[in-house]
Recover the amino acids of this structure.
C-alpha cells in the first residue's frame, strides 16, 4: 500500500491503495465516485475518460502512482443538480445521452476538446471525440450538443 | 384546462437525462451491497464433448470459495425460453465453447480470477459443426435432436406460401438466382452484462442490467422451484442492450442467484468485455437464397426464397428470430406467387440471440441485394424495378395481409432520391469513376418493419399496464417496459401527460420491479411505443374516467385541480389506480399453422440511401453520406426519434463494412474492442433523418414502432452503392477491405465465383446481363 495524494474535483484527497491500482478503481472503489465507467478495461472505449492535469486520459490504463500530486477532474466535478455545466445542459437538450453509459466520458472529452478548440469545426469534433465510443447515438446528437455548447460560450463572451 | 402546447410530438427532455449527464445514474456495477461478494464463471474451452472430470488446481484456498455446479440447482436445470434444452449449468455434455460449467464466488476479485484459471475440465471430445453448411450436410454429426425440433440439427422450420409459385417458371422471361449471406454481429452495448443477486428466507431477488425483467423472473421460478411471489427482479439503469440483454440476463441472473443461495451473501456478477463478447449472444449469421421469376418489363411473377439462420447450440429465441426474418424476407413488394422455406439450424457456437431487427436485417439484406441484381438483369434501373413492384394500399403482403394504411412508397422513393441528389450523383459518378482511383457510388434500399410481436404474439403476451397516484398526487406509470437508451421513460410519460392534460414533468414512471409493476411484456420488437404506449394512453383515460365518475374532477381542470382531485380520491378510497390490458384489434387475424394473415398490426416503411467511396488502392470502402427517410406514424418525440434512427443507422453501417466476428471452431477470436471494430465518431458520415407521419390507429396518438427499423436498411443500401461504384457485386456482409481486395485485385476469383459480375442465373429463359 502507499498513500496517493492528489487534487480531485478541486479538493485535496489522500488514498491508501496499492500503487498499481488503476485510477479507475481508485475513483470507483476507493473514493466511491461511480460516474466514471468501465466499458472495456483496455483503453478502447473511453467510457472511463477523466481529465488529469487538463489532459484527457483513459483511467483504466493509468496506475494510481502516476497521479501523485496531479489534478484530476471527473464527471462529478463538472456540474451540480441545480446547475448543470453548459456541456451537460446541451447534451440533455440535444439528445446527446441515450443509455448514458458513455456520457460521462463523452462530456469530459467534449470539455477537453472545447478547451483546445473553443469553436471547433465538425471535423475537429469528429476527430476530438473519436476515442470515445458510443453505441447508442450514432454521434450526431452529440455533435450538435458540442456545437451548441460552443455557440453558447461564444454568445456569452 | 389542457396545457396549451402539445406534449406528444414535442422534444420533451429525456426523463432520466439529468442523472445521466451528471454521472449520477446508477448502473449495476455502481451498486454495492453490505457483505457483497463477487461471482465468476468457469467455462468450457472446447466446442463439444463429454466431461470426465473437473479438477480444482493447487495454490487456491478453495475452502474460502463458494462453488456451484449443476447439482446445486434446486429446481430444473434449465434456462427456459421457448424450450428447456438450454441448461443453466452443464451436467455432462458440453455443446459450445464458453459454456458455463462451474460458478465460483469470493470477496476478492483478483483471487477469483486466479481460481477460475485453476479449474480444469477434462473431457472426451465429440464431433462438432460450426456453420449452416456443416450443420445441414447429409453426413453431419447430430448435435441437437429433440421432439420439439423439426429434424436433427434443425430447431425450427417455416413454410410460407402465396399463390402457386410452381406455375410461374414456364412463363417467366427471366429466372434470376442469387445467394446472400450475413455474419454474426456483436451488440457491443458499452455496459457489459451484469447483475446482483440476493437469497434470503427462501426467496430470491436479482437486480440487473436487462430488457425483460419478467423473462428472468420466469427463469428463476424454474431453476429454484419457487412460486412467483418468491422471485423478484428489478431492472436498474441499463447501459445499452439492443437485444443483447433480452435473453442473456436469464443466464447470468440465475447464476448469480445460485451463488447467493449457496454463500448466503449478495453476489455481484459483472462480466468484463472479453467474457461478454466471447460468451453472450450475437446476431444470427444467415444465408438467403433467391430464385425469382420476372417478366421482361420487370414485374415480379413469383419467387422462391430459402432463408437459413445459425442458431448456435441451443434453441433460445431462434424460432422467433426466424419468424421475423421469414416474414420480412419478401419486403415491401407485391408477390403474386411466393414460397419461403426457412430454417434455424443448430451449430456448436454459443447460442445466437436477439439483436435489433431480430432476423429482419438478415433477410432484407438478401432481398435488397437481389432486387438490384434483378434490375441489372432485366435492364432497368433499381428505382424503376422497385416502382413496378411496390406494395400499394389495397394490395396484400406475402402473408396475405391487406394493406389498409395509405402508404405511398413511390412518393417516399421520389423524396429520398431527391433529398440525396441521387440522379445527379449517379450521372456524375458514371462520368468520373473511369479515370479515378476512388470509385464513388450511390445506392438505396426500400423496406418495411413490423411493429409488435409477430402474429398472435401480442395476444399471448396479454400485456397489462397500470397508473397509480402517488402521495404527492402525481400519476406514476407502472410497466415492466424498460429504459436502456431508447426513450421508454420519456415517451410513456409524454403519452400519459398529454392524455391526462397535465405537464410532462408531473408524470413519474416506476423502476421496473416485478413486485411492483405488472407485466407489460418484454421491451423488444419495436412494441413499446405502439403497444405499451397505447395501453398507457388507455390506462390514463381510465384514470380520468374514474376520477370524473367520483365527482372530484370537472370536465376541464388545471394541473393543480387534477392533483387535488387525485389526492382527495386517494384519501377517500385508499388508492387511485387504473389499468389497461391489451385487447387484440378486432380486425387482425393470424393463422399460426399456415403462417398466414395479419403478421403485424402495423408496419413502418423506409427508403435509405447511401453514398460511398471505394479506394481501389487501399480497398477501403467508406460511407460518405446517408439519408434515412421513414414513415413511422406519429413521431412522439422528434429528438429521441432522430437519435434512435441515427444510432440504428450507425449500427447498420458497422454491420455493412466494419463489424466482423472472427470465428475459430465456435470461439469468437476477436472478442475485444481492439479488434472488433465498431464505428467511431470519425468513421460515420452525416446521417440525414427524414420522417413522414401517417398516423396509425394502433398506437398512441398515431405512433408506430421505430426501434428496429433503422437497422434493416443500411447494409443493403451500402452494398448496392458499392456495386454501383465498383461494378463488382458483393453478396456478403460485413464487407471488409480484405474482401474487396480479394475480388478487385484478383479477377480470376471473380469469374470463378458465380455471384460475381454475371448475375447467377438458371432456368429456361434467362437472357443476357448488363454489367
Ligand atoms: S474502460 Fe477505459 S477505455 Fe474502455
Ligand atoms: S449513450 Fe449509450 S453508449 Fe452512448
Amino acid at each position: 500500500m502507499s498513500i496517493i495524494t492528489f487534487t480531485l474535483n478541486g479538493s485535496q484527497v489522500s488514498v491508501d491503495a496499492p500503487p498499481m491500482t488503476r485510477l479507475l478503481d481508485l475513483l470507483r472503489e476507493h473514493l466511491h465516485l461511480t460516474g466514471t465507467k468501465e466499458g472495456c478495461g483496455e483503453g478502447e472505449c473511453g467510457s472511463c475518460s477523466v481529465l488529469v492535469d487538463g489532459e484527457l486520459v483513459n483511467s483504466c490504463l493509468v496506475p494510481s502512482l502516476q497521479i501523485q500530486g496531479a489534478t484530476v477532474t471527473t464527471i462529478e466535478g463538472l456540474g451540480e443538480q441545480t446547475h448543470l455545466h453548459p456541456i451537460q445542459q446541451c447534451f440533455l437538450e440535444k439528445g446527446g445521452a441515450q443509455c448514458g453509459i458513455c456520457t460521462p466520458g463523452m462530456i469530459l472529452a467534449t470539455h477537453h476538446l472545447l478547451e483546445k478548440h473553443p469553436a471547433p469545426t465538425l471535423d475537429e469534433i469528429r476527430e476530438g471525440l473519436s476515442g470515445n465510443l458510443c453505441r447508442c447515438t450514432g454521434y450526431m446528437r452529440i455533435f450538435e450538443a458540442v456545437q451548441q455548447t460552443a455557440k453558447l460560450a461564444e454568445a456569452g463572451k | 384546462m389542457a396545457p396549451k402546447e402539445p406534449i406528444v410530438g414535442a422534444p420533451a427532455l429525456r426523463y432520466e437525462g439529468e442523472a445521466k449527464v451528471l454521472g449520477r445514474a446508477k448502473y449495476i456495477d455502481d451498486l454495492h451491497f453490505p457483505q457483497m461478494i463477487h461471482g465468476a464463471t468457469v467455462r468450457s474451452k472446447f466446442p463439444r464433448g463429454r466431461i470426465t472430470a473437473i479438477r480444482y488446481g493447487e495454490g487456491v484456498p478453495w475452502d474460502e470459495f463458494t462453488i456451484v455446479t449443476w447439482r446445486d440447482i434446486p429446481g430444473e436445470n434449465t434456462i427456459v425460453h421457448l424450450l428447456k434444452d438450454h441448461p443453466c449449468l452443464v451436467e455432462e455434455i458440453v455443446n459450445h465453447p464458453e459454456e458455463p460449467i462451474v460458478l465460483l464466488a469470493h470477496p476478492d476479485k483478483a483471487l477469483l480470477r486466479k481460481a477460475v484459471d485453476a479449474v480444469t475440465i477434462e473431457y472426451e471430445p465429440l464431433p462438432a459443426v460450426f456453420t449452416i453448411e456443416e450443420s445441414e450436410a447429409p453426413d453431419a454429426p447430430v448435435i441437437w435432436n429433440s421432439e420439439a425440433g423439426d429434424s436433427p440439427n434443425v430447431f425450427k422450420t417455416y413454410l410460407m406460401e402465396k399463390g402457386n409459385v410452381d406455375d410461374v417458371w414456364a412463363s417467366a422471361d427471366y429466372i434470376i438466382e442469387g445467394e446472400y449471406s450475413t455474419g454474426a454481429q456483436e451488440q457491443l452495448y458499452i455496459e457489459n452484462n451484469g447483475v446482483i443477486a440476493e437469497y434470503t428466507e427462501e426467496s430470491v431477488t436479482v437486480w440487473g442490467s436487462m430488457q425483460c425483467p419478467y423473462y428472468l423472473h420466469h427463469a428463476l421460478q424454474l431453476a429454484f422451484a419457487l412460486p412467483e411471489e418468491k422471485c423478484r427482479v428489478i431492472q436498474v439503469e441499463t447501459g445499452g442492450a439492443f437485444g443483447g440483454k433480452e435473453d442473456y440476463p436469464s443466464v447470468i441472473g440465475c447464476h448469480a442467484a445460485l451463488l447467493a443461495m449457496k454463500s448466503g451473501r449478495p453476489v455481484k456478477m459483472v462480466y468484463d468485455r472479453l467474457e461478454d463478447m466471447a460468451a453472450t449472444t450475437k446476431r444470427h449469421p444467415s444465408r438467403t437464397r433467391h430464385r425469382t421469376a420476372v417478366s421482361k418489363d420487370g414485374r415480379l411473377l413469383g419467387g422462391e426464397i430459402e432463408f437459413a439462420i445459425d442458431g448456435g447450440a441451443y434453441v433460445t429465441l431462434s424460432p422467433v428470430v426466424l419468424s421475423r426474418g421469414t416474414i420480412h424476407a419478401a419486403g415491401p413488394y407485391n408477390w403474386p406467387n411466393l414460397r419461403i422455406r426457412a430454417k434455424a439450424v443448430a451449430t456448436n457456437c454459443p447460442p445466437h440471440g436477439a439483436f435489433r431487427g431480430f432476423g429482419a436485417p438478415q433477410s432484407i439484406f438478401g432481398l435488397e441485394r437481389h432486387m438490384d441484381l434483378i434490375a441489372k438483369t432485366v435492364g432497368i434501373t433499381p428505382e424503376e424495378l422497385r416502382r413496378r413492384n411496390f406494395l400499394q394500399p389495397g394490395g396484400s403482403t406475402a402473408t396475405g395481409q391487406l394493406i389498409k394504411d395509405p402508404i405511398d412508397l413511390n412518393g417516399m422513393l421520389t423524396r429520398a432520391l431527391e433529398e440525396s441528389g441521387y440522379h445527379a450523383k449517379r450521372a456524375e459518378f458514371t462520368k468520373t469513376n473511369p479515370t479515378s482511383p476512388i470509385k464513388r457510388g450511390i445506392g438505396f434500399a426500400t423496406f418495411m418493419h413490423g411493429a409488435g410481436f409477430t402474429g398472435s404474439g401480442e395476444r399471448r403476451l396479454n400485456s397489462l399496464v397500470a397508473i397509480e397516484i402517488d402521495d404527492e398526487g402525481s400519476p406514476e406509470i407502472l410497466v415492466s417496459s424498460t429504459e436502456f437508451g431508447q426513450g421508454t421513460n420519456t415517451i410513456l410519460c409524454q403519452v400519459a401527460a398529454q392524455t391526462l392534460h397535465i405537464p410532462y414533468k408531473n408524470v413519474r414512471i416506476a423502476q421496473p420491479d416485478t413486485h411492483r409493476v405488472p407485466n407489460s411484456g418484454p421491451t423488444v420488437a419495436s412494441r413499446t411505443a405502439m403497444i405499451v404506449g397505447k395501453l398507457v394512453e388507455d390506462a390514463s383515460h381510465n384514470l380520468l374516467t374514474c376520477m370524473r365518475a367520483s365527482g372530484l374532477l370537472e370536465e376541464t381542470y388545471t394541473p393543480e385541480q387534477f392533483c387535488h382531485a387525485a389526492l382527495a380520491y386517494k384519501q377517500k378510497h385508499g388508492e387511485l389506480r387504473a389499468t389497461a390490458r391489451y385487447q387484440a384489434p378486432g380486425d387482425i387475424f393470424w393463422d399460426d399453422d399456415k403462417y398466414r394473415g395479419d403478421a403485424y398490426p402495423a408496419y413502418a416503411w423506409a427508403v435509405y440511401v447511401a453514398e460511398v467511396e471505394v479506394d481501389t488502392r487501399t480497398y477501403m470502402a467508406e460511407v460518405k453520406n446517408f439519408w434515412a427517410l421513414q414513415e413511422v406514424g406519429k413521431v412522439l418525440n422528434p429528438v429521441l426519434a432522430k437519435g434512435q434512427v441515427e444510432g440504428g443507422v450507425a449500427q447498420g453501417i458497422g454491420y455493412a463494412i466494419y463489424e466482423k466476428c472472427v470465428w475459430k471452431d465456435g470461439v469468437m477470436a476477436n472478442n475485444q474492442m481492439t479488434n472488433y471494430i465498431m464505428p467511431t465518431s470519425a468513421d460515420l458520415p452525416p446521417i440525414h433523418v427524414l420522417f413522414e407521419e401517417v398516423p396509425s390507429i394502433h398506437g398512441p396518438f398515431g405512433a408506430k414502432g421505430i426501434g428496429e427499423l433503422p437497422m434493416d436498411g443500411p447494409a443493403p443500401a451500402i452494398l448496392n452503392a458499392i456495386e454501383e461504384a465498383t461494378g463488382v457485386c458483393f453478396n456478403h456482409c460485413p464487407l471488409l477491405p480484405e474482401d474487396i481486395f480479394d475480388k478487385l485485385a484478383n479477377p480470376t476469383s471473380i469469374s470463378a465465383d458465380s455471384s460475381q459480375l454475371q448475375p447467377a442465373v438458371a432456368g429456361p429463359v434467362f437472357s443476357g446481363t448488363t454489367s
